What we know:
The chain is mostly helical.
Amino acid sequence: MSSPFTCIRLLMLVACVLFGESAYATKIETLVMPGLLIEGHADIESECISCHSRFSPKAQSSLCLDCHKLVAADVNAKEGFHGRMDFSETDSCSLCHTDHKGRNADITGLNSEFFDHEKTDFPLIGRHKSQQCSSCHTDGKKWREAPSGCFSCHEKDDAHKGQLGKMCADCHSSSSWLKQSFDHNETNFALKGAHQEVQCNACHPNETYKNVPMDCVSCHRGDDVHRGGYEQKCDTCHGNVKWKEAKFNHNDTDFALTGVHQKTTCSSCHAVGEIASTIPTSCVSCHLVNDVHRGRNGDDCKSCHGTDDWSKPRFDHDRDTQFSLIGIHKVVTCNSCHAGGIKENAPVRECVECHKANDPHKGELGDACDDCHKPTGWHDSTHFDHELTGMPLYGMHALAECEGCHKSGQYAAVPTACIECHKSDDVHKGALEEQCGECHNANGWMFWNYNHDLTNFPLTGNHTDLACESCHKSSPPQNTPKDCFSCHKSDDVHLGRFGRNCERCHSTKAFDVNLIMTPNGDRE
């Protein structure tokens, strides 16, 4: 026996053949409708084609999805409850959802007690498993409209008052709201050392999380015993394990600590509140009171002093300067030479700069004191070589005291002519001019070696015993007459009758003895 639905299909087929797609066919479909639609479909109850495709039952699911677009989107994206059900090509919506069961019929077929929430976009884990469905799915709302964000349900539990946003799951887990899983190391301020034990509100008071300062001094200003002297760069010295255990290495700065500086307290150089970068690093800035030179040697203390012991200078005058200290220079004090200025301005080899007051020569011998004097002692035996002057010393001159010729302390302007010293010894009274050296020598004033025979008037006879002044009565000696009559005029008994050529008769043996002329004209 044929079923009622088969009869209905036959009637509809006949109607369609006879009347085509006409209103009559629609009326016939309505007449054979198996039951009223649910309340949600009531407005399309008279339009069967909205849900049914004639002669094509498989097309019915497409018509359903055309109206239920959100479900269609889930199916296409394989999301949500419907998208995760893995429909096959033969499956249709009517397998789960049938209609024509009356206005109040429940065609969803949802059994909350046995519903598998794992097939949704929000699997239930942790404390969510024990929650009532109504906790998230409220009356009057579709099941799919239940919020999936933590903040939607836990806003009242948010102790941060929204300051950390709505991504609760970044810190909290579904097993317990009070068990946070936030990893502070994922931020720009990783928690290390003692920071791991600090309460959140110690750095985030009043639930402040944005623009929280990350520099140490913001939290540790009260611990800064330097009062900002180190420019608030706390982490340069302090670690995050213990604030009071500083790890600063001064050798990493521009001023490495050596010698006694290593034992010096920080406050010795760093006054409270003084900015470290402004503290001068020159020695004199700290050791001005120790500068016995009173600034005369400049500010470069380290050129002489070391950091091991300020009182033991390491300056080597022989090595480090152009003036080696020898003799008594070794024992003189620094300010004996460096009295008027810094060491660069001290005289290098000009003895007179220091010994001008000791110069008995009054500058007459110039400034080259070391030509004569020795550094072993200013009054030690001098080593002046008189042979290198214009007046070499020999004979009796070599035994004479310097003051014998240099009576007034003059040296450069002392005359070298014999007459200047021996004028009182000149028995000639200037008659032989002042060329003493032509007769006398340095071996003794009375030792004279003049050879009259080398002149135009050789001395013979009694002339050899005559004193010089007997003939040289006035200067110059070359003007002394050479004829006999000039000296023997008073001895001329002839009263000039025989002329002035006395030597025709007389000889030098004796003026009063006449010469005898031989027949040959020779004298006898």
